[in-house]
Design a protein that fits this description.
Number of domains: 1
Number of helices: 9
Strand content: under 5%
Order of helices and strands: HHHHHHHHH
Structural class: mainly alpha
Largest sheet: none
Shape: globular
Helix content: 10-25%
Number of strands: 0
Distance between the termini: 40 Å
Radius of gyration: 19 Å
Length: 305
């Protein structure tokens, strides 16, 4: 009897509520949609990153607050911006808008999967965990978008398209996916970071080597989690930042303290998310240079000081 499984790290801890953790563990990635689709679009942890919900319950997460009025006041967009709090509308107000033509959110592309009423994180958390994201607008870095998140930007990682429905009528599944076309970042590179794709996004947005054009480039750390999982990647921190809307910000859906008159999207709230620390920032031992790379576990009956 299957009692546990693991694809993407922390799906059960960060996404699923307590009442469905065992049900998720018992099923397979191909039959889980009925259990997890709503949670991937309204992650449980998101409730603790929204001050209208339980944001004050975990003081350590104070820097992580989901966008509730992203791009408010921007001409041509909803006046109140976009709200990605659990059960809110997210990008759904754009459903069917001609502005979505040519993007992954158009109905003739993947819009019916990515834009769902009352499921705001269906545009980011769901594809990140369930299918990978397509290399189509808006899933490109905000570099070159000129303030319009739906415009073509800098191609980021040509990852995975939403899968066709399988025989059960479900789409995708919780699996750890790796794009083998992305080159590995050397461990001795000064750009190497345990922040995975988030570090690559920061370089693509802010580093003069990469943010001067919308040409596709091999940005360091594009081989990092959630594009596979390197041993060094700090998956707990990355997922906390992702649930708080970091991926949305990377494609131009900036945090609430950004306004059309702001000199830069790198606002105090964005800096707070990027500088968020869990208190455990490195491993307590080294990695080996050869297989199996991880060290022998510490002996459980010995106290280390």
């Amino acid at each position: 009897m299957q009692v546990s499984r693991l694809g993407m790290p922390l799906t059960n801890e960060a996404i699923n509520p307590i009442g469905d953790k065992d049900a998720w563990n018992r099923t397979t990635p191909y039959a889980e949609a009925a259990i997890t689709d709503d949670y991937l679009s309204n992650p449980e942890l998101g409730l603790y990153m929204d001050d209208r919900q339980f944001g004050g319950a975990v003081p350590a997460l104070a820097a992580l607050r989901i966008q509730t009025k992203s791009l408010a006041g921007t001409p041509g967009l909803p006046a109140n911006g976009f709200d990605f709090g659990n059960t809110k509308s997210g990008l759904f107000p754009l459903k069917g808008n001609p502005a979505l033509n040519g993007t992954a959110l158009a109905d003739n592309a993947f819009g019916n999967y990515l834009l769902v009423a009352g499921k705001p994180r269906s545009v980011d958390i769901k594809p990140i965990f369930h299918t990978g994201v397509p290399n189509l607008p808006p899933y490109q870095l905000a570099t070159g978008k000129g303030g319009n998140p739906l415009a073509p930007g800098k191609p980021f990682v040509n990852n995975f398209l939403p899968l066709a429905a399988n025989t059960n009528g479900n789409v995708g599944g919780d699996m750890l996916r790796l794009n083998m076309a992305v080159p590995a970042t050397p461990r001795n590179s000064p750009d190497f970071s345990n922040q995975g794709l988030l570090a690559a996004a920061v370089l693509g947005l802010t580093d003069a080597r990469y943010n001067g054009s919308t040409a596709i480039q091999n940005i360091p750390n594009m081989d990092g989690f959630p594009n596979g999982r390197r041993l060094e990647d700090e998956v707990v921190k990355i997922e906390l930042q992702a649930v708080s809307g970091a991926a949305l910000a990377a494609i131009g859906l900036w945090y609430d303290d950004y306004a059309p008159t702001s000199p830069s999207p790198v606002t105090p709230q964005l800096k707070g998310v990027l500088n968020f620390a869990t208190g455990v920032e490195k491993n307590d031992t080294t990695f080996r240079a050869t297989f199996p790379y991880v060290q022998t576990p510490w002996q459980g009956y010995r106290i280390r000081r």
